[in-house]
Amino acid sequence: MTVVGLIGKIGAGKTTVAMLLRQYGATVIDADALAHDALKEEAVQERIRDRFGSSVFQGVVIDRSCLAELVFGDQPKHKKALQDLEGIIHPWVRDALEERLRRIDAQPLSEGGGSVVVLDVPLLMQAGLHNRCDRLIWLECEDSVRHQRLVQRGMSAGQVAAREEAWIAGFQKDSVPDHMLCTVDTSGDIAYTEKEIERIWEELSHRSS
After folding, report:
1. In which domain, by residue range, is 81 found?
2. In this structure, what CATH number is given to the domain that contains residue 179?
3. Which end of the chain is more exposed for a tag (fewer CB within 10 A), N or C?
């Protein structure tokens, strides 16, 4: 099993690259989906209620947009809130991710065992999950292109800035060994990105065979 992590700022195209790798046969573990599952766990909800209060709940469901307003921003209180939220969510997500990896690795080769597994994790390095990867794919995308994509998603400039502030915190690209890192230019159209992923897939599939 070869574990591949995707690294890139918001809007760089991680979801698109993960989709292309899935089409080639990779198994994708979506950390956002795991985080959504975590927010449904009673123990997690209790800790979030203790830290952030009942205002972030709609009945028994956590209001993710309300929670995001409290943790994404450039003020010290936002950074502390994000740190506290990550302290609640990340351990659960990490355990769920490791369990998924164990199940995949235990499968016979004919059923997908020993394959390429892609970790689609928004803050992969910040969560320390890059240490779980055999290879890392850095998504290089011009800021103007990323921002245009995010505007099309309906995000405001403030929301974009807050999420980029969270992404930058603790990120050190220079700490990644060169032999682990490959770069994909995702600034262009989808056809160009597809060619880049085809090149990388040939290498990954050879490594995992």
Report:
1. 2-208
2. 3.40.50.300
3. C
